[in-house]
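User: structure tokens for this one?
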Amino acid sequence: MTCGSGNRNSGKSPPPRSPPSKSALRQCLADLDLPRGLLSSVLESELSCDSHLWVIDNSSSMSVRDSHVGQGHSDGTITRKDGVTRWEELSVTVASYCKMASKCHMPTKFWLVNEPVSTPGGELSFPCMGLCWGKQEDVPGEMNLIRRVMTAERLDRHECRLSALLRGLSESVAGEAPSLEARDRHVKVLICTQGTPTDRGERTDGTVRQSFERELCKLSKLPVKITIKLCTDDEWVVEAYNDMAARIDCVSVLDDYWNEAME
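Assistant:
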């Protein structure tokens, strides 16, 4: 599950990570005009974070048009544009995050769910894109790669094999757990999905959902903080994920991105 800087399919171990710049991070957060108390909490949380790991659902279900993005106007106001695809909303989220991460040098990896490749042993390996994982001079190229991948994605595969990806993610984080715990640091995991995992046969039954919850539970026992960003307004999906989060420690659900962003 490792990837090198700016390389979607590198088998090499990533270079040592540099911590985010405290001054740059403080300035980025200050630009958001956060309340002083919240600013302090967010800054403390980010400085104790070792890295950010994004899981991105690029299944065909992400092409459904039930999402929202903001439109800026010349007078400084922002209005909501409805009827965009889930992928468009997620692309805006990724672009905004990358802009802040690049300024603060926040080490990040992005995995696309539907780009697994088979290893010689027959196991699945998920290529990823790195951002701020290596040298500062690599960042512009990394940003360009992420932007091109998000723009070119065709969303032409029905599978959403979240369980398989989370299994590999757990193995990767487990290898770093002793070092993370010794330094009192954690990894932030953001799972961006429309909410319906499948298996290889595109099944979405209870067995598949239970497998996803087991892998999520396994990951939560490591030094991580998990947020699930639901790219849908489907009430059944939102309720199911909130119920799941209530059963698993260190998992939170972001189910109304537009309104929470406005707040």
